[in-house]
Amino acid sequence: MDNDLFLHHYLKPSADGLDRRFTVPLPNIRGLTPCGEFIVQGHLEDTFSTNIITKFEDPTGLRLVEVYKNTENLKQGLFIRLVGTMSLVRLGYPVLFLDAAVSNLDVQTAQRSAVSTRVAIHLPQASPEQKEVFYAALNHGADAAGLIYACRELASLPSFWGPLWSVRAEGINFEMIKILRSIAWTAYNALCAQTRQQHAFDYRPVQEQMIFKNSLQEHHLFKKMGLSVPAEAQAAFFSVLVAGM
Q1: What pLDDT digit, counting tens, does each position of 179-230 carry?
Q2: CA 217 vs CA 10, 195, 220, 231: distances in Å
Q3: Largest Cα–Cα distance in the chain?
Q4: Contact 85, 100 (CB under 8 A)
Q5: Among 57, 109, 179, 227, which residue's Cβ finds the most Cβ atoms within 10 Å?
Q6: Domain at 3-242, CATH from 3.90.320, 3.15.10, 3.40.1500, 3.40.140
Q7: Smallest Cα–Cα separation from 70: which of 244, 235, 233?
């Protein structure tokens, strides 16, 4: 991908579908078939937010939802761009969230910064055994790829959410996103192979947290960073990520 094109022509308001120049390859999962595309757009004050979301499924019950998104204050030039963010779930197992963002904002300080790339991975509702398998595989893959990662608990989220695992790089680093999506799938596949499936898994705690609580929290966080994103638009975006499980 051309970095200049990415910075100046990525998912502008009212984009008609997704410009495939800006996609990264899906993890190597056999049998994935696209089964729906959704566009969620919001405009508040000087901020436009465009979400293009594709849902995939395979014959075994695996569900992957992939997101390309641009949230941008067009007057100030502030932006957060999601490049291949995804949720991944096999029914009966916890859902994996991978957030892949390129931004000129520092989420921790809420200030403008140099452009950087950040991938964050969450595995809410995982059992201790599942966490052990998943994070061991995730760490192993990151170590093999020479990536420096951090893992910490988030006081702002409920205890069932578990730790935030993340990697950050200066500049625009699509290759890192590609590598980590593959590593995350390998780790999740190991979790499914090595731990027991829980029939009638109740995903409502995650769904309610994402749609009703995280959407409002992110609305306020974006506001601090100079981005006006309606909580309703975030809730719609999160609904596509987690509904239907």
Answers
A1: 999 999 999 999 999 999 998 999 999 999 999 999 999 999 999 999 999 8
A2: 25, 33, 5, 8
A3: 51
A4: yes
A5: 227
A6: 3.40.1500
A7: 233
